């Protein structure tokens, strides 16, 4: 039996064919085409996680599933099983499925175009483009109830007008910068042009940017011009995506069940699959909000489902303060992590629950990579090799820190704070 390579390198996006060695074993990531999984396959994945891994799964910030704790000796059997079920990504070194949609795509009454169909058309074009970084991805947003603004994509597509066009956005330090628009029929061609141009710039040595969102502004403008994008104005601001609870959908309701830090036990995944068959459409939709959406739930079943889900450890209320907590698996589960991020996040949260209940976002990252949340949070803490945290107010893990504190110091400074302005003031004064 061949041992699995455990080489780790920056910029690598793990999959089923290429698992990643981490603190608790091999991590096997399933990139789900279309963002959904039939209930029987969800049960199969849950059983595989228990048999071939340690029984723990993650739901990622792109709505993918990760099986954790896989061992070298169990990996070949897991690969064979997932390959038989069609759950293995295509061959190649590029992004497995680069287009991400809302879990409500296809059933969102507020969507203005078919985001799933557009995502498939884009992926068909992107698959033949050589030289794209493996982590590259595109947010395809139909303009509905779950905005993808904060997902951290390289390229954002957002429905314009009545849905007959899409605006193109690229992330910048100030938020999304809207670089142009194209008619819906031209969007796949325009996206392919931008992607090919970016890959060509990398090959020619014109840029060292690992992600399109880090590309120099002048080069971004060149790509937009080459794709013949039309001028556009910034779209209207929408409320952030709901992270738990009942959502409106075409026909019946959809229920979004959140998971603390996106960590899911195999029994929870099996339970979600059972609920989807018993109450809904027989499918689960992992969400970029790091939860599980169950579509097609009739009004008469909502109370029972929410009660059972709550008792099974899911977060079912949109006001739950734990939804403002973001943390990676941390040390020792992740080999890159320098601190036990989830445990520290819960400890800090115990000191500032009043802030979290107001919607203040707290991101605790075990290292500078910031895998759990690449975007800004009201307060970001980045683990360091001395066990302390770099403190970054209103920023991302890649931004400059204003303080370097231990957990005890953080607890002391956060404990008396009541509102977000107090937090900002305390951090500003401490940094002077």
From TrEMBL:
Domain Nitrite/Sulfite reductase ferredoxin-like residues, every copy: 19-83, 251-310
Keywords attached to this entry: 4Fe-4S, Heme, Iron, Iron-sulfur, Metal-binding, Oxidoreductase
InterPro entries assigned: Cbl_synth_CobG-like (IPR012798), NIR_SIR_4Fe-4S (IPR051329), NiRdtase/SiRdtase_haem-b_fer (IPR005117), Nit/Sulf_reduc_fer-like_dom_sf (IPR036136), NO2/SO3_Rdtase_4Fe4S_sf (IPR045854)
GO MF, one example: oxidoreductase activity
Superkingdom classification of source: Bacteria
Keyword Metal-binding: yes
SUPFAM superfamilies: Nitrite and sulphite reductase 4Fe-4S domain-like, Nitrite/Sulfite reductase N-terminal domain-like
Protein name as annotated: Nitrite/Sulfite reductase ferredoxin-like domain-containing protein
Natural source organism: Microvirga vignae
Organism placement in taxonomy: Bacteria, Pseudomonadati, Pseudomonadota, Alphaproteobacteria, Hyphomicrobiales
């Amino acid at each position: 039996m061949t041992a699995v390579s455990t080489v780790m390198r920056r910029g690598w996006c793990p999959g089923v064919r290429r698992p990643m060695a981490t603190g608790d074993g091999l991590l096997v990531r399933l990139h789900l085409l279309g963002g959904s999984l039939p209930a029987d396959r969800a049960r199969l994945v849950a059983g595989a996680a228990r048999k071939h891994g340690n029984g723990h799964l993650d739901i990622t910030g792109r709505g993918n599933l990760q099986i954790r704790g896989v061992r070298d000796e169990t990996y070949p059997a897991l690969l064979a099983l997932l390959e038989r079920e069609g759950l293995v990504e295509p061959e190649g070194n590029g992004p497995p499925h680069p287009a991400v949609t809302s879990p409500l795509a296809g059933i969102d009454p507020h969507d203005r175009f078919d985001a799933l169909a557009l995502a498939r058309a884009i992926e068909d074009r992107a698959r033949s483009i050589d030289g794209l970084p493996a982590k590259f991805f595109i947010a395809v947003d139909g303009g509905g109830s779950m905005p993808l603004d904060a997902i951290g994509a390289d390229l954002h597509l957002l429905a314009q007008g009545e849905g007959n066009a899409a605006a193109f956005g690229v992330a910048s330090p100030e938020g999304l910068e809207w670089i142009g628009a194209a008619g819906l029929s031209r969007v796949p061609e325009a996206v392919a042009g931008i992607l090919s141009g970016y890959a060509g710039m990398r090959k020619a040595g014109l840029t060292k940017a690992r992600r399109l969102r880090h590309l120099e502004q002048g080069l971004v403008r060149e790509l937009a011009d080459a794709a013949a994008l039309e001028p556009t104005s910034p779209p209207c601001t929408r409320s952030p995506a709901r992270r738990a609870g009942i959502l409106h959908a075409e026909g019946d309701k959809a229920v979004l069940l959140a998971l603390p830090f996106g960590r899911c036990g195999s029994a929870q995944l099996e339970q979600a699959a059972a609920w989807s068959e018993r109450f809904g459409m027989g499918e689960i939709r992992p969400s970029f909000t790091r939860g599980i959406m169950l579509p097609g739930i009739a009004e008469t079943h909502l109370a029972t489902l929410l009660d059972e889900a709550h008792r099974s450890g899911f977060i079912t209320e949109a006001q739950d303060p734990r939804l403002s907590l973001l943390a990676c698996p941390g040390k020792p589960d992740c080999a890159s992590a320098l601190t036990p991020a989830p445990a520290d996040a819960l400890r800090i949260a115990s000191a500032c629950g009043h802030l979290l209940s107001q919607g203040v976002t707290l991101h605790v990252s075990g290292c500078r990579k910031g895998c759990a949340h690449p975007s800004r949070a009201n307060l970001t803490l980045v683990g360091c090799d001395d066990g302390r945290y770099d403190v970054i107010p209103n920023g991302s893990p890649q931004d400059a820190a204003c303080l370097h504190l231990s957990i005890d110091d953080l607890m002391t400074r956060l404990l008396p704070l009541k509102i977000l302005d107090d937090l900002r003031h305390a951090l500003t004064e401490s940094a002077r």
